[in-house]
Amino acid sequence: MITLGRVAAVKCGRHVNRFFRRLLSDSCQSVADIRRFIAENTEPCGPKSLTPEIRLRLFTPNCRFWRERPELWPFGDPYWAIYWPGGQALSRYVLDRPEVCLGRTVLDLGCGCGAAAIAAKLCGAAHVVANDIDKVASVATQMNCELNGLEPPICVTDNMIDSEPDPFDVILLGDMFYDEALATTLHRWLDCCIKTHGTNVLIGDPGRAQFEGHKIRRLLQELACFQLPESVREENYGLTCSTVWRYCPEL
Ligand SMILES: C[S@@+](CC[C@H](N)C(=O)[O-])C[C@H]1O[C@@H](n2cnc3c(N)ncnc32)[C@H](O)[C@@H]1O
């Protein structure tokens, strides 16, 4: 599976040959092209994560772009091709406690590969929306739903943060506190969602510095903590566990 270092390398490579990337990008924009690209450049994975019952198309060492020059990567950073430790814990928690999503309207914000949305669907959520500003992530989420024999959720690629909150019962946030600026806007918007609709906000995070140091951290109730499987630890530079929190603001 791709590592954070590899993501950084892909990111770095973006600056090396922008022209070439744009040329490729322009020729890869249709959903059919993106689907073909994902199918050709990922492998279905399952057993090694915290949720072996969910299969996901991800980067593995057998995939071309695991070793390929990052400047040849035709899209933005491939966060959707990784099943992040925060998302793994969150999805595990949802699967273990189906009552959290059963019959509820659920938003998986920053869905990436779509695992938390899939977990919510498997638990009988009434309505699931998967949101990611990366169009490729939304296609990957649809393909991963199909891989698990599920109808794809509604996939939204607009930036919902700071928009008028919709009346979701549950918002799922897997590994979304990896960037300080994003964490701050997200925090503000979550307050608004809770104040307006009483939304239940669940966060999965493996203890990233940006999360641990953020002021939202003091307003969280721990729900569960999961030891990460060995392979996930190896791919995530020594992270050993991942925690699920409920956001309980003092509004
Ligand atoms: C670290 S990944 C986590 C993916 C997934 N939740 C998981 O745990 O496997 C963060 C994801 O958030 C998405 N993202 C970043 N900013 C966003 C925003 N403002 N709205 C929605 N998604 C966003 C990225 O494209 C990326 O797919």
Number of discrete domains: 2
Tell me the fraction of residues in β-strands, as a range: 15-25%
Bound molecules: S-adenosylmethionine
Calculate the mean pLDDT score and round it: 89
Radius of gyration: 17 Å
CATH homologous superfamily annotation of the largest domain: Vaccinia Virus protein VP39
User: Which strand order do you get reading across the main beta sheet?
Assistant: 5-4-3-6-7-9-8
CATH class of the largest domain: Alpha Beta
Report the uncertain regions: 1-24
DSSP helix count? 10
| Broad structural category | alpha/beta
Q: Please write the string of helix (H) and strand (E) elements.
A: HHHEEHHEHEHEEHEHEHE
Secondary structure: helix percent = 25-40%
Strands, total number: 9
Distance between the termini: 41 Å
Per CATH, which architecture of the largest domain?
A: 3-Layer(aba) Sandwich
What name is given to the CATH topology of the largest domain? Rossmann fold
Describe this structure in words.
One of its GO terms (cellular component) is mitochondrial matrix. InterPro entries: Ribosomal_L11_MeTrfase_PrmA, SAM-dependent_MTases_sf. It holds the Pfam family PrmA. The chain is an alpha/beta fold and 251 residues long. The protein folds into two domains: 4-81, no CATH class; 85-247, Rossmann fold (3-Layer(aba) Sandwich). Helices cover 38% and strands 18% of the residues. A seven-stranded mixed beta sheet has the order 5-4-3-6-7-9-8, covered by helices on one side. The protein starts with a helix and ends with a strand.
